[in-house]
Amino acid sequence: MSDKQYSENQTRFTKFIAIVAAVIVVFIIWGVIVFLNEKKDEQPVAVKKNESIVTEHVHRVEPKKDINVAGNIEKIKIISNGEEVDIKEYVGNGYVVIIDFYADWCGPCLALAPKIEELVKENDDVILRKVNIVKWGSPVARQYGINSIPDVRVFDKKGNMIESPSATYSRIEGYVKAAKR
Questions:
Q1: How many CB atoms lie within 10 A of CB 171?
Q2: 161-166 and 96-102 as β-strands: parallel, antiparallel, unpaired?
Q3: Residue 31: helix, strand or coil by DSSP?
C-alpha cells in the first residue's frame, strides 16, 4: 500500500469515526431529554386533582368544530399548527378529551402518538385533539406555557383537567380511566 492510499484510508476512517461519534452524541442528548421529562412527571404535583381550566359556565362545542361532514365526532383531529387555540372549545363536550401538545420534529412525541391514538380508538367516549407547537416560542406554545413536549393533558367529560400534564403513557392511560369515573 502506498503512502497516498494509506493517507486516503486514514482520512476516510477519521470521517467515519466523526460521523459515528456525532450520532452517538445525538442519541445521548435525546435519552437525557426523555429521562428528564419522565423524572419531571414523577415529582410530587402541586396541582389539585380535577383542577379545571374552564370557567364555571362550560362552553359547549359548536358542531362545526368537532363534527365531520357525516355528522360524526372526529376521534382524532389537529386543532392548531402553531397558532393560538382556545382548548376550552374542545373540552366539556360529553367526551373524555386528550389534548396532545407535540411537534413533528420531536422524537418522544412521535413514539408516544401511536399509543395515544390506539387508546382513543379503543374507547368510544375518548377523543384526541392534537396541538402542533411547530417550534419553541410559537403563539400556542407561549399561550399554554409549553416548555417541554410531549405535553399531554386529559379532561373529563365536564371539562376538568385530570392531574397535571404528562409525557408518560402509563400516566395518560391512568388519567383517562380516572376521567371516565
A1: 19
A2: unpaired
A3: helix
Q: How far apart are CA 98 and CA 123, in angstroms?
A: 12
Residue 23 shares a structural domain with residue 85: no
Q: Could you tell me if 154 and 109 lie in one domain?
A: yes
| Same domain flag for 21 and 80 | no
Short-list 114, 130, 37, 40, CA closest to 82 = 130
Q: How far is CA 48 from the centre of its chain?
A: 22
How far is 166 from 100, CA to CA, in rounded Å? 10
Q: Which residues are catalytic?
A: 106, 109
Structural contact between residues 89 and 65, judged by C-beta atoms closer than 8 angstroms: yes
Tens of pLDDT, residues 95-116: 999 999 999 999 999 999 999 9
Could you tell me the pTM of the whole model? 0.62
126 beta partners: 96
